[in-house]
Amino acid sequence: MRRNSYKRTIQHVSLGQDLEVTERIEALSNLCINPIETIEPQDLLNAATGPRNRILLFDYEESLDLFKQVLNLPLASKNFETILINVPHRLTTEEILKYGHLKGLFYSHEDGNKITFGFGEIINGKNWLPRDVASQLLHHYRYVVSANTCTTVVDLTSREIEILRCLQSGASNLEISGDLYITESTVKSHLYQIFRKLSVKNRLQAIAWANQHLLS
Questions:
Q1: pLDDT tens digits, residue range 100-154?
Q2: How far apart are alpha carbons 160 and 153 in whole angstroms?
Q3: Phi, psi (degrees; rounded to nearest 5) at 110
Q4: What are the DSSP calls for 43-64, one per residue?
Q5: What class is the 141-213 domain?
């Protein structure tokens, strides 16, 4: 990993309870020019007074337990960017968003040298996201903007806006669930809320509302 001129540091957020994870991080650290530090989650609660150039590193499997034990980590803070490694499969958009300002994601099958090269690119201000993940995030934030710029005042969530867009394209419930990585029952639940909020009775009326009020 090439040396950076901004003195930004990668810090592994860990409870230190998983030896396999510790060994994995040490192996990656040995491949880096700047070693990876390890910090405890509690340290992040002092984010307002801490360094502003931290890049937080999470091991996916370890983070599942970490989030259960430590609530309200300030990952949305503008002080932090995050990296996620050891991801075994494609994640839902909701799972990705838990990690705040995600700058890099690496699957469990990826080579250590490739991962640390990606770390170097992130330290130097670039993103290192797989194409599928970048597409998911772009899709999500596109509809967040649509929700916030809708000309009609209706209390729709960004997810409900996404589903309305899918309706406009003619997608079935099954196709919507596949596109958004949610269950078909969740799609039906969202549709119920959309119909209620828009005071419409069916998909055609909802589509007509979307055609009139949602930005293209």
A1: 889 999 999 999 999 999 999 999 989 999 999 999 888 877 766 655 555 455 7
A2: 14
A3: -80, 145
A4: GGGGGGGS-S-EEEEEEHHHHH
A5: mainly alpha
